[in-house]
Specification:
Jelly Rolls; 47 strands; GH10; polysaccharide degradation
Length: about 950
């Protein structure tokens, strides 16, 4: 690893050895040296005009978050002391009441002069630029005269000792606010830069009204070489519309040129006078680029907007992407996709996206790429701005939801085919002999219901797969309601092979899947599914389709009805109480047993033992806010990409386990269990090119080497492995190495690490919308692996689900549960633009999982905006605010923690019923208070815990 050099400042550099103690204690002597030297060797320091550094200034933007404490102490941290922001009517710190109106922070309980308030500014600063500091400070408490207040930088280096650097000082007295000013400059960036205010003697409170740190413009900075990092600059792209020619732009592996027109005058700028082209591209990653180092700040969300098109090489349409190349201080490289669009040669197209940097980069370059070689990329303008905060979604108000009411007209066919029409040229007629009972999943939602009529629609003369019976339901659909779909279907004779039958919706000419089933016999089959519409449509049609042309089919009892989720939750709470709780009796013993009877007992659960985990990625752990939320709210982890073969061995023989190692180190440090995802991935598009080029013999060797390398390295460290991901949706290894390769992968992994539970893992198992991975197919697949000796130890259901319906999900779990294997939701996410609906969807899935006896764990596929595989599925906004879905998750976690209180019985006992997990009990007798801990494990019989007081 490259060793970082110490940073140089315009002010005094003080390389102070970090103490071995927990909080990096610094001595009074050190503090005094800083005070004495604060005017030495700072010839380059400049006190800038107050208008430049004022918070209201339009000329420079403050890199300090929450600079005036209007958001309380958000983004600030007290350094080994306490801090608070007094309310407007607070009686605290009366000495400053007359100073001025507004918020301020009070830093108290100071036992050392170096204790104060700090903020990490690593991502807000750049090497080679000069920064001005202005803070409004005061003091309060037992003080005669004045006290020094210092601004200091703490510099944390990766491979050398932590150092401290003086920035500025002022002398403050009670009842007045003073302005502390200073400047600093870094020649290189350390791993972390923390700004803090300190200085008054122990026992004296430090008061802080505002802090402003601004980057001086290039004209004002004698050493600055670029623009400043700011959160509020309109556009961090320099020369965004090429008014200054090609200045600040360059080609990434190609040439760039400027044009006022192209294509014999057919291509002209959409706006402005000129546009740029990236030409002579020989690779898809070639394109036009601009370095934005020093102008982009970590932990801030940015919006990207570009006007683009393509030209030449007979390519009329192509994927065009905006990408960030990021280099970290330890020379790690990252490529971050931030936007993509299907660009054409016909017209200009807008490319839009968002991104956020977790860590502190040493270099950042944004570039356009994507089209095949020989195709020019044209760029008219590029804008990157700090993303405006999107106001939270309003709670949808749904009047008269009419839960359980079928919106299909003449579903019973009592009036022939009235209300129905044929889509296409097929014919519809009514027959009898279909089931009289509701399909099971509908029955679970609707409860007691009148029998079906036994009539069905016979669909004949079909010349296209999409032909079938249809109805218009535009006026019957309510936005944001979740609808369950249920029907009986059957295919006629003459079919060759399995036939797919689908209940579909045409929503303004967009296909929406309402449920599918695969049929290869002459029995009636249940279709179950769901859908939801969140934007006002002009036309909604429901239709049934799917079998091959010429194949007749029958439809009976089609039901589409809104689902009352709250009613289902009541049932799930009762179910949860039965399977996730246990009766517990605490038996107390004491030398003073006479006084034990009647003693007060308070029981509080500290940790639920059920696994709730999340996907994390290497880049996430550079963001301390992400890590804080993760370790507080999850007890399991799975890595997004860092364990996959294409990540650990992108080129043959070039192994990269560093990212996975660092993620695993984080998990182990916080006692978080980890799943290994995944050893192989059966879908061909995920397989590296070098693997695809191997002969059968070499591929077999490579597969064996992969298992040996990965599982041996991490033996005993991953509790689970997804052995061969998505075998129901891909077959690369099976196609090339034969059917035996799949069970052999399980056997080999088990031989190396017998302690790991080996999982199958697939998607659309639980939602009724994909016949390839329906529960029946999954069961058949698992049994096949076991029959060939594959030690399958667990069933992974990914859970990337839309508009979930409890009975549909529960039905899949019931079917899979007959195998007796533990079931995990391994990649759960739900998606809705509306946070409240997203919260409801998440609650549906978590309650169904937690209430089902076969489910033994739930992994979310991420939780932080911009780091999710699906849009509108996050629980935490990009800059750290927990949204409604996140709040719902935290509410459920609290609901699933037990509490009880009461008194010790005459028998010396106290009983309660509680969730499995860790507990603390407090017993207050006549003479003492005793704290003890205990565990409640799974079990059917009551648990007796003996506690000696």
């Amino acid at each position: 690893m490259k060793k970082l050099s110490l940073c140089c400042f315009t002010g005094q550099v003080s390389n102070i050895r970090e103490s071995k103690q927990k909080h990096s204690l610094r001595s009074e002597e050190t503090m005094e040296n800083l005070r004495k030297n604060d005017t030495a060797d700072i010839s380059e320091e400049k006190i800038v005009d107050q208008s430049i550094i004022s918070p209201s200034s339009s000329r420079a933007t403050n890199i300090i978050h929450n600079h005036d404490f209007s958001q309380g102490l958000h983004s600030w941290h007290a350094n080994s002391c306490s801090a608070f922001v007094p309310s407007s009517d607070s009686s605290d710190s009366k000495e400053v009441a007359a100073k001025s109106a507004g918020n301020y922070a009070v830093v108290g309980n100071r036992t050392e002069c170096w204790q104060g308030l700090e903020q990490d500014i690593t991502g807000g600063i750049s090497a080679g630029l000069e920064y001005s500091v202005s803070a409004c400070v005061g003091v309060s408490g037992p003080l005669q005269g004045s006290a020094d207040v210092l601004a200091t930088l703490k510099l944390e280096h990766r491979d050398s000792e932590t150092s401290y650097s003086f920035v500025g000082r002022t002398s403050a007295s009670k009842e007045t606010w003073e302005t502390l000013e200073g400047t600093f400059l870094l020649s290189t960036l350390p791993q972390r830069v923390i700004f803090y205010l300190e200085g008054p003697s122990p026992g004296v409170d430090l008061l802080i009204k505002s802090v402003v740190i601004t980057c001086k413009s290039p004209k004002e900075s004698e050493t600055g070489t670029g623009a400043c990092v700011t959160a509020g600059d309109d556009n961090i792209i320099l020369n965004p519309t090429f008014e200054d020619g090609l200045n600040n732009w360059s080609g990434r592996g190609c040439k760039i040129a400027l044009h006022d027109s192209m294509g014999d005058g057919k291509i002209v700028p959409q706006s402005g006078k000129v546009f740029a082209s990236a030409t002579e591209r020989t690779q898809s990653w070639n394109g036009i680029q601009q370095e934005i180092t020093g102008r982009v700040q970590r932990k801030l969300a940015y919006e990207v907007s570009a006007v683009v098109r393509i030209f030449g090489n007979n390519v009329t349409s192509s994927d065009l992407r905006a990408t960030l190349w990021v280099q970290t201080p330890n020379q790690r490289e990252q490529y971050i996709g931030i936007a993509n669009v299907q660009a054409t040669d016909k017209d200009w197209t807008q490319l839009k996206g968002k991104f956020l940097l977790n860590g502190s980069p040493s270099r950042v370059v944004v570039y356009l790429e994507g089209p095949p070689s020989g195709t020019d990329i044209l760029l008219n303008s590029l804008v990157i701005k700090h993303a405006e905060k999107t106001p939270p979604s309003p709670l949808p108000v749904i009047e008269n939801p009419a839960y359980g009411v079928n919106i299909i007209e003449n579903s019973s066919l009592n009036n022939g085919t009235n209300g129905w029409f044929s889509l296409g040229t097929c014919s519809l007629s009514v027959g009898t002999g279909s089931p009289h009972i509701l399909p099971p999943m509908a029955r679970d939602s609707l409860g007691v219901h009148e029998p079906l009529s036994g009539r069905f629609i016979l669909v004949k003369n079909r010349t296209q797969t999409w032909m079938g019976p249809a109805q218009m339901i535009t006026d019957k659909i309510k936005l944001f309601l979740t609808y369950q779909v249920s029907a009986w279907v059957r295919i006629g004779s003459g079919a060759t092979g399995a036939q797919n039958v689908n209940v579909a919706l045409g929503v303004d000419n967009q296909w929406v899947n309402g449920g599918q089933v695969e049929i290869n016999d002459d029995r009636w089959h249940e279709i179950g599914g769901s859908f939801r519409i969140e934007k006002q449509p002009s036309k909604v049609m429901v239709y049934v389709q799917g079998p091959a042309s010429g194949v007749d089919f029958m439809l009976a009892g089609l039901q589409i009805f809104a689902v009352d989720r709250e009613a289902r939750f009541k049932h799930l709470r009762r179910q949860t109480d039965m399977i996730r709780k246990r009766d517990v009796t605490l038996e107390f013993t004491s030398a003073d047993s006479a006084n034990l009877h009647g003693s007060f007992v308070k029981v509080k659960q500290t940790q639920n033992s059920f696994p709730f985990g999340s996907c994390i990625s290497r880049t996430n752990i550079d963001n301390e806010d992400f890590v804080d939320f993760f370790v507080k709210n999850f007890n399991w982890a799975v890595f997004g990409n860092e364990l996959k073969w294409y990540w650990t061995e992108p080129q043959q023989g070039s192994l990269n386990y560093k990212d996975a190692d660092e993620l695993l180190d984080l998990c182990q440090a916080h006692k978080i269990q980890a799943r290994g995802h995944c050893i192989f991935w059966e879908v061909e598009s995920t397989v590296q090119q070098w693997i695809k080029s191997l002969s059968k013999s070499d591929l077999s060797t490579a597969v064996q080497n992969r298992v040996n390398s990965l599982v041996t390295r991490y033996k005993g460290k991953f509790k689970h492995y997804d052995v061969n991901n998505e075998m129901l949706h891909g077959s690369f290894y099976q196609d090339h190495l034969g059917k035996e390769i799949r069970p052999n992968m399980f056997k080999l992994a088990n031989q190396i690490d017998p302690s790991a539970l080996l999982f199958v893992n697939d998607y659309h198992v639980e939602d009724g919308c994909d016949p390839r991975s329906c529960p029946e197919k999954y069961i058949e697949h698992i049994l096949g692996l076991q029959e060939q000796g594959g030690p399958v130890g667990g069933i992974g259901i990914q859970g990337h689900i839309d508009s979930p319906i409890g009975p549909v999900v529960s039905s899949a779990l019931d079917k899979l549960g007959i195998l007796g294997l533990p079931i995990w939701f391994t990649e759960l996410d739900v998606s809705s633009v509306n946070e409240y609906i997203r919260a409801q969807d998440l609650e549906v899935m978590l309650r169904e999982a937690y209430a089902h006896p076969a489910v033994e764990g739930v992994m979310l596929w991420g939780f932080w905006e911009l780091f999710m595989s699906r849009e509108n599925s996050h629980l935490v906004e990009a800059e750290g605010e927990v949204n409604e879905a996140g709040k719902r998750y935290l509410e459920l976690k609290r609901e699933w923690l037990s509490r009880a209180h009461g008194h010790v019985s005459e028998e010396g006992e106290f009983g309660f019923r509680g969730f499995h997990g860790s507990y603390a009990v407090e017993v207050v007798t006549g003479s003492k208070k005793v704290l003890k801990t205990f565990e409640v494990d799974k079990g059917d019989s009551p648990l007796v815990v003996s506690i000696a007081l």
